[in-house]
Amino acid sequence: EARPATERCLAGGSGSTGAPLFVPRYNANYQIVQTPDHIVLLAEQNHDVRIIPLDTKLPPEGMRRWMGYSVGHWDGDTLVVETSGFVPGDEFKPATPILVGHNARVTETFTRISKNEILYRFRVEDPETFSRPWSAEMLLTNTGEPMFEYACHEANLSMVNMLAGGRAAE
Predict the structure, then answer these.
(1) Phi, psi torsion values for 2, nearest 5 degrees
(2) What is the Cα–Cα distance from 109 to 120, expressed in whole angstroms?
(3) Up-side HSE of residue 59: CA atoms within 13 Å toward CB?
(4) pLDDT tens-place string over residues 129-164
(5) What is the pTM of this model?
C-alpha cells in the first residue's frame, strides 16, 4: 500500500493525462474524444483517463481527485481547462523533475492550428511551490496510428517480490 500510485498502476506517471501534460518517455500517444458536454483525454501510457466536464464550476474547496479536478469551457476555437484539487502524493510528474503542489491551479489550452496539430499550452500557479507562475507549450500531432493496450504489471516480478517482502515483514 505504501508504493506510489505510479508503481501500483493506479494513476500518474510518465504520460499521465493529469494536468499539466508532459511528454512521456515511451507510449507517448494521447487520444482526445469530444462529446457535447465532456472532453476525454486517454493516455496510451498507463491507460490513464481524464474526463473533463464542460461548462461546470470548480468543485468545493478541499475536494481532491486523482489527477486533480478539471473543468473546461470553449473560448472561441480554444478549449480552456482549469484544474485544481490534486491528491497529495499524486502531484509529482515522474517524466520530469517537476513537482506541482496539491494546492496548485493549472490552466491548459488546446487550440487546433491545422488538420493534424493541436497547440497545447499550460500555466501553473502554485505559490506554495514556486516563487511565481510559470508556463510551457508543446505541439500535439495526430499520428493516424492506433493506440495499444498498456499492460502495467505483465510479468513484473519485482512488484510480487516487494509485496511478498512487505507481508513477510508484517
Answers:
(1) -85, -10
(2) 6
(3) 14
(4) 889 999 999 999 998 888 887 777 666 677 778 788
(5) 0.81
